[in-house]
Specification:
431 residues; mainly alpha; Ammonium transporter fold; two-stranded antiparallel sheet; two-stranded antiparallel ribbon; 16 helices; 4 strands; disordered N terminus
Length: 431
């Protein structure tokens, strides 16, 4: 045994130090969990969000909603690998943007690590975030935007809006340097997408007949199924953002489910109280509102805080969708701003209030003796909203110039985009 031990030690001493370190640093459990989390988040866009949004769109635009969601995922996947990742996570340049060193994933190999997982896995995980963020914007403009314009808009928006904001918060940019907390995407994903959706809806204009005729959803059953798939995928979204299979990931998993459940119930109760009927659409929307609100806080808050965050999110989402939109008069088709923008804002603020160092030493909020954190969160919200609003206006007008207009012709909108743009029908309707 002694001779065997000496031989093993001698063999290890001949190995390069980097090889030994890489073998020790790579954690197979963390890697397996992150690959599963990436697959969970992937399902959220071309399946969960497509069904959720598709069911709420009108029957004549159901396939168009699917197509725009799926093409957003495909485009973001390619953009991210070619230049989006480098912009977001390349070497920091003045706190604003990542450098070009990792364009086309240059300099990254199979032995490259991010924490305890392969960098390739981290890149794929972050790619799914870029894809769902731009797809969320779609909810504000379904029924009326040209497919070609959506393609150009997606390319420009992921490049010039999403990737820089991701760098600010997660890539070593200025918001991370001042201590802004965003565990899984309150500012980067939801405020970003919600504000962009509102801006784009205002530029594109209202649907023909909006406010004058009923616009019934094509299938609430599809929306309910989509909400369930989003809920399922969100465990990877939030718990996966820890980048490790550990106690913080487990806590994020738990509070994600709790917030979603509380928000679904609180939206249902608010709707029941004011509209006298608890709808499946309201229940599904409430669940998503709760998932949105807990996203930035998931790795920083405990169970009681998640109950409060979810309860507020459900009521806030309901009033933004049923009251604020009507009062302000904007046509946010599927309520991307009301659910994602406003509930994301609440989640970012709640993180600054409820972040608990007993859960995660990296976060300490107002209730635990750090009022400064709340002001940092407010700054991160304002910075993201202002940059996204101005940037989305520019991207929208560049897209309009490049494609000859953002909106489909009136006769195509009246006919329905499934038939006029894609030559297909979601349902075979016979007399």
């Amino acid at each position: 045994m002694k001779v065997k031990s000496i031989l093993i030690a001698a063999t290890l001493s001949l190995l390069p130090f980097s090889s030994v370190f890489a073998a020790d640093a790579l954690n197979s459990g963390d890697t397996a969990w992150m690959m599963v989390s990436t697959a969970l988040v992937m399902v959220m866009t071309p399946a969960g969000l497509a069904l959720f949004y598709g069911g709420m769109s009108r029957y004549k635009n159901l396939l168009n909603t699917f197509a725009m969601t799926i093409v957003a995922y495909c485009l973001a996947s390619i953009i991210w690998m070619m230049w989006g990742y480098s912009i977001a996570f390349g070497p920091d340049k003045a706190g604003i943007i990542g450098g070009p060193e990792n364009l086309f994933l240059n300099g990254i190999g199979t032995d490259s690590l991010t924490g305890t997982i392969p960098t390739y896995v981290f890149i794929a995980f972050q790619m799914t975030f870029a894809a769902i963020t731009v797809a969320l914007v779609l909810g504000s403009i379904v029924d009326r935007m040209k497919f070609s314009a959506w393609i150009v808009f997606t390319i420009l928006w992921v490049t010039f809006i999403y990737s820089p904001v991701a760098h600010w918060v997660w890539g070593g940019g200025w918001l991370s340097k001042i201590g802004a907390l965003d565990f899984a995407g309150g500012t980067v994903v939801h405020i970003n997408a919600g504000v962009a959706g509102l801006v784009l809806a205002l530029i594109v204009g209202k649907r023909i007949g909006y406010g004058k005729e009923a616009m019934f959803p094509s299938g609430i059953t599809l929306t309910g199924l989509g909400a369930a798939l989003l809920w399922f995928g969100w465990f990877g979204f939030n718990a996966g953002s820890q980048l490790a299979a550990d106690g913080i990931a487990g806590s994020a998993f738990l509070v994600t489910n709790t917030s979603a459940s509380m928000a679904g119930l609180s939206w249902m109760l608010a709707e029941w109280m004011f509209n006298k009927k608890p709808t499946v659409l309201g229940l599904a929307s409430g669940i998503v509102a709760g998932l949105v609100a807990i996203t930035p806080a998931a790795g920083f808050v405990n169970l009681p805080a998640s109950l409060v965050i979810g309860s507020v999110a459900g009521v806030l989402g309901y009033f933004c969708v049923s009251k604020l939109k009507q009062k302000m008069g904007y046509d946010d088709s599927l309520d991307a701003f009301g659910v994602h923008g406003m509930c994301g804002l609440w989640g970012a603020l709640a993180t600054g209030i409820f972040a608990n160092p007993a859960v995660n030493s990296a976060g300490k909020g107002l209730l635990f003796g750090n009022p400064k954190q709340l002001f940092i969160q407010i700054l991160s919200i304002l910075a993201t909203a202002i940059f996204t609003a101005i940037g989305t206006v520019i991207v929208a007008y560049v897209t309009r110039f490049a494609t000859g207009g953002l909106r489909v012709e009136e006769e195509k909108e009246m006919e329905g985009l499934d038939s006029s743009l894609h030559g297909e029908r979601a349902f075979e309707i016979t007399s």
